[in-house]
Amino acid sequence: MNCREHVDSRESCSPVAGKWSDGNKKPFMYNEYLQKKLQLESGESEADRYVPPMPNIQENGRPNLRKLGQLPSLLIKLGRFQEFISEVSECLYTLC
Which residues lie across from 28 on neighbouring strands? Predict the structure, then answer.
């Protein structure tokens, strides 16, 4: 089984959104080889990705240009329009 089969394209904007930051564990699947080698009953697990938080405004008071520039376009490409509206309104509220 290929690892790419387990990757959901809808999660591709998660690092920019900061979904897996602050100790939030991301679920994943071991491939069959590792599952047998590690003698795991289930191939499902989760781990901390150690992703830094992605605030709208950085500690120095400047806007986070990476998040503000990349997240809206990724959400539109993935068809996540409700989340796009929510994120954009939150970013605009934070900046104003």
Answer: 45
Domain boundaries, the chain: 3-95
Per-residue model confidence as pLDDT tens digits over 72-81: 888 888 788 8
Q: Name the residue among 16, 7, 6, 21 with its Cα closest to residue 84.
A: 16
Question: What is the total residue count of the chain?
Answer: 96
Query: Sign of torsion, CA 2 6 81 64?
Result: negative
17-49 tens-digit pLDDT: 667 777 778 888 899 999 999 998 888 888 887
* DSSP code of residue 29: E
Residue 87 buriedness (CB in 10 A; 0-12 / 13-18 / 19+):
buried
- Cβ-contact 72, 84 below 8 angstroms: yes
